[in-house]
Specification:
- The protein is an all-alpha fold.
- The protein contains five helices and no strands.
- It is globular, with a radius of gyration of 21 Å.
Length: 124
Amino acid sequence: MRHTASKILLSACSVAVITGTLLIAPSGASAAEETTVEKGKALAFDRKLGNCLACHAIEGGELPGNIGPPLVSMKLRFPDKEALRAQIYDSNVRNPNSIMPPFGRFNILSGEQIDQIVEYVYSL
C-alpha cells in the first residue's frame, strides 16, 4: 500500500513537471517587489505619466530619447536608493540646471508612483 502511494505521488509530480502545472508559490516579499517593479515599468514607459523614454534609453523601450543618460547599471550609479528617489522627485536639488521635470515637487506623479518607478529603475 505504501509503495503504491509513493508511485502515485511520483507519477503526479512527473505529470505536473512535464505539463508545467507544478506551481511553486513565490515568497511574499519578492512577489510584492516584482509587482511593484512591474507597476514602475508601466509608469516609466507610459507616455502620459512618467514618460522616462522621452529622455532616456531603457532596455525594451520603444523610441527612446537621448537627452538624459541611458538607464543602466542604476545600483552602481545610485548605491543609495533614496538618492535615486530624490533625483526623480526633484532633480533640481542636485543640479539646478537639470531639465528633468521635478515629478514630485510639481505633483506630476504621486509619492506611490515615484516609489514604483524607483523600484523599477533600481532594478535596471
